[in-house]
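Thread: cobalt (II) ion complex, take 2
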Amino acid sequence: MHPVTSRSFVPAFIAAWMVAATVALGALAASPARGATYAVAIADFAFAPATLTITAGDTVTWTNEDPVAHTATSTTGAFDSGELAQGESFSFTFTAAGTYDYLCTPHPSMTGRIVVQAAAPAPTTAPSAPSSTPGPGGGELPDVAMPLPDGEPSRTPLVAIGLVAAALGLAGALGVARARSG
Ligand code: CO
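Output below.
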């Protein structure tokens, strides 16, 4: 390997690595995947707040502050803390939108609800919407649009034919003029 090559290769490699690292860090920083964490206290035989609205990807942490053991148990089996002694916590990350009712198994009158809203729609959803929206009238859009592309090219041959005819006419006129002069 020539010294010149190795000398230029190292800075190029470092520059490429720095660019890659910057891009990777930027992607991490911009990533909306990291959800927030919400706290629900279990105190005085009640969940506080009793109803909590979060976004898909967020985490809820229940902490029992009572000297009595409680649970946070989904009525649909989505999650179950098991018995939490005083000071113990249970966390669950909600990935799917929906309404999650839960209760305390030893004390079914203790109820709570987690409302999980869908995360912000992905950018791919917006572009696909317009393409599907013209569905009913979609049949007419191509019909209206077609004459325009057809009209443009059909004009071009006419202009070309006109230019050729004009050139032939000019050549013919010159030929006649030469024949007369000669
Ligand atoms: Co309880």
